[in-house]
Write a structure and sequence with these properties.
The structure holds two protein chains of two kinds. Chain A is mainly α. Chain A is built from six helices and no strands. Chain B is built from 21 helices and no strands. The chains are: A mainly alpha, B mainly alpha.
Chain lengths: ~180, ~425
């Protein structure tokens, strides 16, 4: 069993690292495109249509992939006062139950995200000659990652001595570990 | 029936500790499954289209600029500049906190970053200079409320997105005067405190040193000039102003101040992606929630039943402030804005309240909520930085909060206080 946990932990760490790299690359591209748009408009007097559209699609990828990572990092904003007021054992059970709900929501995004991609993915983007297959899959992929990461949170809850809230306290404290 | 299930599920799940975005999401999924004739893929479609808008890009840009500035040593420079500007006034160190926080708010937009960086520096310095730790922590905490009010403000971007058809630029400019007035009210309180309890004066700074400090600090404050100047002059949209501020912050902190290494940038970018993701997930799931509320005619139901009980605009504004102060005590600013704006908008329209006015009142009240128990994020950071208990902090906090409430009432009932700047620049009719 320990070998299974160890392998699963490695899989999660690898997936999380991959998501992190993808987000950093996409966010860098997003910055570069928006800044290039301003430069083009004022230096060359040209407004390029894709500089309005592509950043939106990049934002969608970054947001939903990042949202899945925040499940693993327990950074989504919530209210944990009553949770921590509970005794240890009920708190642990509640933590597992709440993570199961997160898993269920991930499944809905995954399941209906696939339907959405199948039904509308072949439509063309607004101004550039590519199909929506380039950004609609952000939904089912993030749904799958939310499920995967919530399983990790559930295992951690079951295995650890104490139970921790699955929510962070504020948007302003996201990433505080690195910030402090 | 569907509305009752939706509301109850959301409330219970939030109270027991499910993250708000997921509590809203799960409640919406249950309600959608119960609604006859609705395709379940609507949930995914709504979530996706909710964040598929260009103005929302401003969130990640302003967060990036803010984190770079916060990590790039701007707090120390602003404090040193503030010492030159107001260090000679009674209550000198408290005055420095107020002015440095005012500028810090204009550079980062974050209350928590303000408390942790300015607080870590100024609370021990104030204590060493003879101030009580209680007062030092209280003034740092209350000054931090200027962060989300003085532009750039993530709360205002979120409000503009949820309200729709509201100019981010107008909201940003509307926040300038109230933010500065809060700073001035806290400076007045510091003045009185200084006159009554603290008569020490700071050592005189040589002229050359003064000039160096002001130039060093102003380089950081120039971010505000880029944002506001760019928007006012029409050079940038609010989103592009965010990108320009991010580039400026990058150049300043990496190449001029040299406090951030290039190797740190990926980690900072990742941190911004996570903050952005939390905000976007809230917007995405709440859009499904709002859609169900509209589908089930909740705004009309509220307007026909509950809202008819309130007849006076003045009474409404008073109730609104009280309600938002209480909400702010329990819920973080971003989720509160996303959930309450659709419900408060019909009322604001009924009483002929400008959307910029509504946004400003909401952001100010919810910013106060960051400093109040039981759930005040900035408060918790202040307790940690100041190494003080909640009971000890509350007594000096209350008079300062009262000073700020005067500004809140002024903004609520005398709209010309905030209106003149956006009106003068043609951003409001």
């Amino acid at each position: 069993m320990e070998t299974f946990y160890s392998l699963f932990d490695r899989l999660i760490a690898l997936t999380a690292a991959l998501v992190r790299i993808v987000c950093i690359v996409l966010a860098t591209a997003l910055f570069a495109i928006v800044i290039a748009a301003v430069v083009f408009r004022y230096c060359f007097g040209q407004a390029v249509s894709l500089t309005e559209e592509v950043p939106r699609y990049l934002l969608i990828w970054i947001s939903f992939l990042g949202a899945a990572s925040c499940v693993l990092r327990r950074e989504h904003v919530g209210f944990d006062v009553l949770f921590y007021a509970l005794p240890k054992r009920p708190r642990k059970a509640l933590g597992v139950f709440l993570s199961l709900l997160v898993f269920g929501f991930g499944w809905v995004i995954f399941r209906y995200g696939i339907t959405f991609v199948q039904d509308f993915g072949s439509d063309l983007m607004e101004t550039i000659p590519y199909t929506n297959y380039w950004y609609y899959p952000a939904m089912p992929i993030s749904g799958f990652l939310i499920m995967l990461f919530s399983v990790k949170v559930i295992i951690d809850e079951v295995r650890s001595a104490d139970a921790g809230a699955i929510a962070g306290s504020s948007v302003e404290t996201v990433g505080m570990e690195q910030r402090s | 029936m569907t509305l009752a299930i939706l509301g109850l599920a959301f409330l219970v799940l939030t109270l027991v500790g499910l993250p708000i975005s997921f509590a809203v999401g799960v409640a919406s999924v249950i309600a959608t499954f119960l609604l006859p004739g609705v395709d379940n893929a609507t949930i995914v479609q709504r979530m996706l289209t909710a964040i598929n808008t260009f103005p929302l890009l401003a969130v990640i840009f302003f967060v990036f600029a803010g984190v770079l500035m916060a990590k790039g040593g701007i707090a120390r420079r602003l404090v040193m500049m503030a010492e030159v500007l107001v260090g000679w006034l009674p209550g000198s160190l408290a005055q420095i906190v107020c002015v440095a926080s005012m500028f810090f708010g204009g550079v980062t937009g974050s209350a928590v970053a303000e408390v942790s960086s300015i607080g870590a520096m100024m609370i021990p310095a104030m204590e060493k200079d003879g101030y009580s730790r209680r007062f030092a922590t209280a003034i740092v905490l209350m000054a931090a409320t200027m962060g989300p009010i003085i532009p750039p403000s993530i709360g205002m971007i979120v409000f503009a997105h949820v309200a729709g058809n509201v100019s981010i630029a107008a909201l940003f400019l509307a926040g300038v005067v109230p933010g500065v007035l809060i700073g001035v009210s806290l400076m007045a309180a510091s003045f009185v405190h200084g006159k009554l309890y603290h008569r020490k004066e700071l050592p005189v700074i040589p002229l050359r040193q003064k000039i160096v400090r002001v130039i060093d600090g102003m380089a950081g404050v120039f971010t505000m000039v880029i944002i506001l100047g760019g928007i006012i002059s029409g050079v940038f949209t609010a989103t592009e102003a965010g990108a320009a501020a991010a580039v400026y912050a990058l150049i300043l902190t990496v190449f001029v101040y040299k406090e951030i290494k290039l190797s740190q940038l990926p980690e900072i970018m990742w941190e911004c992606c996570l903050t952005n993701a939390v905000v976007m997930m809230l917007i995405a799931t709440c859009s499904v929630f709002s859609w169900i509320l509209t589908y089930e005619n909740l705004p009309t139901l509220l307007a026909e039943n509950f809202f008819n009980l309130i007849q006076s605009k003045w009474a409404f504004l008073l109730i609104l402030n009280g309600f938002l102060l209480v909400v702010g005590m329990f819920i973080d600013m971003t989720p509160a804005l996303i959930m309450l704006v659709p419900m408060l908008m019909p009322l604001a329209i009924k009483f002929d309240i400008n959307m910029v006015h509504l946004g400003l009142i909401m952001v100010i009240n919810l910013a106060f909520g960051l400093t109040t128990p039981p759930v005040g994020t900035a408060l918790f950071v202040a307790l940690k930085v100041g190494r003080i208990s909640m009971e000890k902090l509350l007594p000096p906090l209350l008079p300062l909060l009262a000073c700020m409430c005067v500004v809140l009432l002024l903004v609520t009932y005398v709209p010309s206080v905030y209106e003149w700047l956006p009106r003068m620049l043609g951003l409001m009719k």
